[in-house]
Each structure stands twice: as C-alpha cells, then as structure tokens.
Amino acid sequence: MIIDYHNGEKVELQFAEAYHSYMVGKELVPSVTQACGIIAKPALVPWALKEGVEWLAKNLSNNSGIDFLSNGIKTAYKSTSTDALNIGTVTHEWVEKAIRFHLGEGEEPKMPKQKEAQTAIKAFQSEYRYAGTVDAIATINGEYAVIDWKTSKRIYPEYHLQVSAYAKAVEDIEGKPVDATYILRCDKKTGKFQSVRSEDIEENFLAFRCALHLHRRMKALR
Fold first, then answer.
1. In what order do the strands lie in the sheet with 193-198?
2. Could you report the per-residue pLDDT of 22-57, keeping only the tens digit for each?
3. Which of 78, 130, 178, 194 could disulfide-link 185, Cβ–Cβ 3.0 to 4.6 Å?
C-alpha cells in the first residue's frame, strides 16, 4: 500500500509474510509489536503451566499413552493463544465497522463470526524506521487521539509503549501532534469494557525506542 505523508512524500509499505515483518522498498523494518516483544513477560510461564495442568486434568483418563499426554501438556497454551488471537481479530473488525456505521459510512455490523478477518490503518514512522497497524484515529472531546483495541485480561504496561509508537507514526504521516492515546479493552470472557487515556506520549515513546533499539541489537547479534 502507498502511504501519503503531509509533506507530499509517499512510501510504499508491504507486509512480508515470510518474515512476519514490514518492508519499505527492499528494507525490512520491524513492527511495533515485534519491538515490544523484546520486553520480558514473566507471567507467561506460570500461565502456560496452568494451561498445561488444566489440559491434563481434562485428558488424564485418555488411554493414548504418555507421548500423547506429554505433547498435549506442552502445547496446551498454543490452542488458548490461537483462540485469543481469533477473538481479538474479530473484535477489532467489529469495532471498526461499528464506528463507520455511526459516522454514516457503512451498514450496521452484525455480530461477528470467528472466521472473519480485520482491516485497519497501516503506518510507517520514517525517522525511526518501524511500522504497524493503527486501530483508530479519532477526535475525542476535542482531542486528536490514537486508539488501540485490546481483548486481554488486563491492560499491560507495554500497551502504552505500543500505542505511543502508533501515535508518533500518525504524527509523522499527518504532520500534527497527537494529544492523547487511548487503550480500549473488551474482556473476551466477561465482555466488560475498560478505557485508559494517557498524555504521557513522549515518555512512553522514549521507552518504546529503547525496546526498538534492543530488538535491533539482539537481532544483529544472532
């Protein structure tokens, strides 16, 4: 796709499936989520263990042998992660359609099905050379804001780094400052809604750039 910048420049951004990353010309650029992925997530290990224990409890009576049980325990978390990604994707698309409907730009969305996919805004930050998918840009109570949807159990600290990176990419493209960022979370189990607003874009973006630098350095050392 072609991204048009406020100063008349154009950038062709493509997604390289083989590398699960973006490309600008022949340059491979990291995604925002890849950069944030370098941040340690110690809670994932206990969570994966819990998923394995729960899977074992359900399948202990199965007589398929120790290899079946061993493999099932080790891979139980993957099934949960895939289900979570599917729910997140569907939620993203439904929210986008709902916004367009209320803006008079489309039909009222039906309740989504699991197989449906998402569409969103692709962005590239030309100075720091990263790309990503911005869920929404909107004016909220007079503020120019960048919004990120989440369907996780809670709002994790690194989400603020992620949405600040999107905000800076939007500023680069549009040529005007973003006043605030919003993280909107819809719990995939309870359906409860949570909204967190932040004006700490500069501080969060500084932390993101540290993660981006670490991501690039670790990749270079491999």
1. 136-140, 143-150, 180-186, 193-198
2. 999 999 999 999 999 898 665 545 545 666 666 566
3. 194
